[in-house]
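Input record (one chain):
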Amino acid sequence: MKPTLFVLAAGMGSRYGGLKQLDGLGPHGETIMDYSIYDAIKSGFGKVVFVIRKDFEAEFREKILSKYENHIPTEVVFQSVNDLPEGFTCPPERTKPWGTNHAVMMGKNVIHEPFAIINSDDFYGRNSFEVMARELQSLAPDSTRHYSMVGFKVGNTMSESGTVSRGVCETKGEFLSSIVERTSIGYDEEHKISFVDENGNKQILEPATPVSMNFWGFTPDYFAYSEDFFVRFLRENIDKPKAEFYIPSLVNELVERGEASVKVLTTESKWFGVTYSADREGVVAKFAQLHRDGVYPEKMF
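The corresponding structure, as predicted from the sequence alone:
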């Protein structure tokens, strides 16, 4: 069975200013998602599911989904702050989505096979999709709790325009031993990669340190874990307007409890994306070069 690609496209893009998902950055108006879908098709994925906000469904279907007709089957699911388990009500002051793992939960009713998760506004590179597709296709039909992630070198994921958030990983052999979501990772005055930890101490990251860019591989049993963990998350955080239910938070707990293993897939692909508006010009130039180099054809869809 071919794996499914699950694209997280419900974010507001607040730092960038506008809907990054619909921004044409390629030489012919291609979005970052177009490159991801093209690479996924070439790598052996069989379906694409998008999670979006209901309020831009019409524009999304017109500008995005229409391009993929006759290329790969697609489905759309919706994320809303009001999608909560029984017994919970969204506080009126809550406007921010509940986070990436909440978005993942929206796919439960349409994904019944091994699947990969990506962000809509990140460029991952062809090799990343190839290694993930091979891993998911190698799983036994009844496989559970054997997950995976593409581990990028943090030095290949930085923005010159500001700080970034990354899931910083520790590994044991080829498997993940811990992952911690770190915010405000940036370059210091010596151009070293650093962040300030929860104790207020500056920490330096070597450029080869593996980080998660939200390119995960799961089997459908992950949805049940997510539902259980989300209930606990809400009990502790429902009155915190900015608290988010992150994928790494659940993955890290499952790994620490020994309930799941996560294979870290290596890639030399270099990530890039538009985290800030100042990043846009450089991304446009990179896509133009990829087309000139023949990595992507003039017309992908």
